[in-house]
Design goal:
alpha+beta, Deoxyribonuclease I, Chain A, 6-stranded mixed beta sheet, globular
């Protein structure tokens, strides 16, 4: 009898491939660190789709979009949600997957006139039995009022588009330093935050070198089990302004 499947997930704000304060381009090192985790699903926020100026001026800037460069041959499936568009390029959220992505939609949850934010919803098909898993890559705003509205839109999206009995993973950069999202998503959607249920509180992820604020999350629903996976302080502390989070999720 086959054991129930489990998946390993990783979420990280890539800071467009630069260290904190944009001092150094580290996308190649970031790709190596992401590969070392060997996650089945990788949730990326603030990932560069294109940037004409950097492509001309930054040494070793890849020709491919950053999410494709990171995915390379390890994650044959990927989806990109373009959130911010400017004259010289764009950035947004991306999901890298070792499983087929059968559908994906990017939902613009930006508050008019402020930061561009989005929810990238992907439907995945697991190879054993063809079970479908839903994944939402999240990047919320810096303003608490904006986050409140964006959490409402996340709840609306899940209620409308995700079956009640389907496995669901919601992960990303919530910018939720006051821990307001946890009760909203637990009561409203039945989501469990992996680190809260393991340790009693969310993980500190910002700033990456000396984490003080609990900004990033991994939520699950309809999971048989879930546990945080430890990640080393180095090299991650030097690869972005956010520390990553990883978890093992039994389905």
């Amino acid at each position: 009898m086959k054991s129930p499947p489990s998946i390993r997930v990783l979420t990280v704000n890539t800071h467009k491939g630069f260290t904190a304060l944009n001092r150094r381009f580290v996308l190649h090192e970031l790709r190596d660190a992401v590969r070392a985790v060997d996650a089945d699903l990788v949730f990326l926020q603030e990932v560069q789709g294109s940037h004409r100026h950097h492509g001309e001026r930054v040494a070793h800037w890849p020709q491919a979009p950053h999410y494709e460069f990171i995915a390379d041959q390890l994650w044959p499936q990927f989806a990109y949600g373009r959130n911010a568009v400017y004259p010289h390029g764009d950035h947004g959220n991306a999901l890298l997957s070792k499983y087929p992505i059968v559908a994906h939609t990017n939902h613009d949850v930006s508050v008019h006139g402020h930061e561009a934010r989005g929810l990238l919803h992907c439907t995945l098909r697991l190879p054993a039995g063809g079970e479908q898993v839903h994944a939402v890559c999240v990047h919320l705003g810096l303003s608490e009022a904006h986050r409140r509205r964006q959490l409402e839109l996340l709840c609306k999206l899940v209620r409308r588009d995700v079956p009640d009995d389907a496995p669901l993973v919601v992960a990303g950069d919530f910018n939720d330093w006051r821990d307001k999202a946890n009760p909203v998503l637990e009561r409203g959607l039945g989501l469990r935050e992996v680190f809260v249920h393991a340790h009693g509180h969310s993980a500190r992820t910002f700033p990456a070198r000396f984490p003080m604020f609990r900004l990033d999350r991994i939520y699950v629903r309809n999971a048989r089990s879930h546990r945080p996976l430890p990640l080393p302080h180095r090299p991650w502390a030097h690869l972005s302004d956010h520390a990553p989070l990883a978890a093992e999720i039994g389905l």
